Predict the structure.
Amino acid sequence: MGNVQSLECRECGKEYAPTFRYVCDECFGPLEVKYDLASIKVTRETFAGRAKNLWRYFELLPLGEKSRIVDLGAGYTPLHKAERLAKRLGLKNLYIKNDTVNPTFSFKDRPASVAVSKAIELGLSAVGSPSTGNLAAATAAHAARAGLPCYIFIPWDIEPTKVVQAATYGAEIVAIKGTYDDANKLATQAGELYNIGIVNVNLRPYYVEGSKTLGFEVCEQLNWDAPDHVIVPTGSGALLCAIGRGFTEFETVGLIKENRVKITSAQPYGCSPIVDAIKQGTDAINPVEKPNTIAKSLAIGEPGDGVYAARTVHQTKGFGENCTDEEIVDAIKLLASTEGIFTEPGGAVSIAVLKKLVNAGKTNADETVVCYVTGNGLKTPEVVAAPSTKPVAVDPKIEVLAQIIRR
Ligand SMILES: *Cc1c(COP(=O)(O)O)cnc(C)c1O
Ligand SMILES: [Zn+2]
């Protein structure tokens, strides 16, 4: 079983053998992977010669055998020093963790790679997921790589490009007349009835481990140091919690000296149950019945990890902040035009929220800030394809350039 000790209930602490299960029999709490961290012997040199993908951290991932890895090259994405954007905002040490360049163009390749690998190890014969869009493609691509059938459950109104992408990888698409939360419930039932590995439901304890690598990589890329502050786009809250554990596990096994990171949750106004709780100083989540935002990747009204995400933010002394659709579009354009990185709305909320924190005086110019930018703008061109961005055609004559070229 590699270094996994057990699956532990996040509510009552009861431990189970690490098999195909995800809820506690005693209290129905969610289970999470517990490692025997004290016995894991890794040093910075352990990773030096390894492939530049998320599996370089194999000792801290929940797989028994390397032969089961289903890999398309997810992870070890660039940590981009954002000097022009930093200057614009009045910061000095700003980085973008650019997860737009993963194999299917979002961070979801990380948890999907781990979950589909685990499905192989557990001997499952099909996988699937409910998705707000990006997970559909990530699960479908890794299922294709593994040769497993794949079933995707999506709300009918997600971005068309994301559906085309998942379907092209060969997945069966089930479009639901309803919200993400309805799709989630149907996928959960399908997993039970047909013994399908639903990556973010019944494989969730293993799935979420893939996203920890977004914490690990940032430390390694900052020359084995944790940043002061990270800003995380938040839907279900799983990503935020996983990044938090990435930093604490690296501290526990001695790969970084001190973990002082503040973790901030960023959500759109049209669906911000976690940020609302954080702002009220609580971890009690009020579900949003009808999410309404262009950041469809984050439109999860009943966030599975909401309580834990709010706690992580409170414990690390981070912030919760939300932004409007207009602020999201502005942030997409700002990031693209200052740094050359084109993100979808879900990824841009971290930039929009950073701008608001700076304006509110909640950042300090010298701190090291990392914005997680989690998905690619080519998946959602419609949000920025306003008439004003359509090129005006001109004759191919040098004279016309006199009106165009700036000098
Ligand atoms: C899924 C997703 C998120 C949020 O992840 P959660 O684990 O649901 O909080 C953020 N950004 C993008 C682009 C996503 O696809
Ligand atoms: Zn329990």
User: Anything to note?
Assistant: The pocket of zinc ion (ligand 2) is lined by residues 9, 11-12, 14, 24, 26-27, 29 (CB under 6 Å). The mean pLDDT is 96. The two ends are 64 Å apart (CA to CA).
